[in-house]
Amino acid sequence: MVLLVRRLGAIVWLAFAFAAIGPASAQSVIEKLISPGALSSAHARLEARCEACHTNFKKTAQAQLCKACHKDVASDISARRGFHGKFPAASADCNTCHVEHAGRGKDIVGFNKASFNHAFTDYPLRGKHAGTACASCHAANRKFRDAPRQCAACHKKDDAHRGSLGADCASCHTESGWTEAKFDHGTTRFPLTGAHAGVKCQSCHADGNFAATPVECVSCHRKDDAHNGALGPQCANCHTAADWKSTRFDHSRTGFPLTGRHADVACKTCHVSPAGAVRLATTCIGCHRKDDVHKGANGPECASCHTAVSWKATTFDHSRTSFPLKGRHAQAACAACHTSPPGQKKLAADCVSCHAKDDRHEGQLGARCAQCHTEDGWKTSVRFDHEFAPFPLIGKHAAVPCASCHATARFKDASTSCASCHTKDDKHQGAFGSDCSTCHNPSDWKNWIFNHDTQTSFALTGAHVRITCSACHGAGRKKLSSICGDCHAADDAHQGAFGPACGRCHSTDSFRNLRNRF
Hints:
Layout: H1 2-21, H2 23-34, H3 62-69, H4 71-79, H5 82-86, H6 151-155, E1 173-174, E2 177-181, H7 201-204, H8 218-221, H9 267-270, H10 285-288, H11 334-337, H12 352-355, H13 402-405, H14 419-422, E3 440-441, E4 444-448, H15 452-455, H16 469-472, H17 484-488
């Protein structure tokens, strides 16, 4: 026990001694003294560099240094994949499983094939895979993690389809056995329904060709086509998978459902060519050009006014246009707006295009009449919110009649300056400029405020506070000199001998109070 204490004391003494010499050499010697043993052969090159795996006085940092070298393992742990990402203890310190300083021959991996649980990998072994030898998938001298996971990588020689169905063998085969296959034809472009469900696979998939099998009806039923191709290859338009001879045709599935009088028309009335030889037009004008009394002026969309019930029964809903008729517009005659032949000219929908002559503002307020006027009447229910104008009405301005400021309907001619309306009220006769709002506010012309200290360069102090405005600003004078002598020349007992800057000796409290005494 005494010997152990002495050795520890010597180590501590050496630590202080080498600390005095220098940190680099002290660290190297101390590390050699306290090393618990030689590293494994895999880490032997790091034996002289303890800092590669250890951080002084910070044991918890060791795992991060391990991950810094073993980046693939660190990536697996971060992404929770592979053995290190899925095994519960793998996220703890690395030395929990991998113990170092046990000598060159120590196996620090500790991998045991017999006890290894493949469920902690990205490829759990199920079915026949559970009995497969490790070497069948894990090639010699290669990392276990590099083993392929795609079925085709191991079973390419077993692929009877020769790659025509791709590499995803698991879409049909299972791990229970290669020959046990399942396939849901409903997942393809051609689900088997009706009589197709009883057809043998090789009837359509000759020579084991699955990927390139056509799905068009005519590819198998060309010999059954009594129309000799006249109706095209889409047999399913009329025939069903239940029975080739059971046919159906629903005209509503075409681009022209038969409604009204059209439902009573014989097929050959429209289909004058051999069946399927010519694609018929679905526009009204295609059949009814001779019935068009407008001679094409209203365009080819007859259905915008006429219905399938009767050609002579017409209807037109202006609300279906971009300009629904409301208010007084609903009473206007069609010809009032549609001056050109019907359909010949597309009318503008903006107000000013029809009401330019009614614009008393002479274009000053723009073309958007609806901002103030409504369809109920040009002079009725006029609305205008002065809050959105450059001059919002507040205080007494809100009660002023419009005509007081707006002499004409050219509203923008009205000035927004105070002086333009209040010249007669200006007792200063323009001496203080045209911006009355500097002192006055819209609440009341007589309700004004002026702060001589903040609004001028001459703050009023002492006796100046009690003096009347007119004492200095006589006859509406606005800009005055701030030099004492300009106002107090008559009070200067020195008769100018000490200059005009009286404030050097006198204070504003009283002319007789002196700052300095000589």
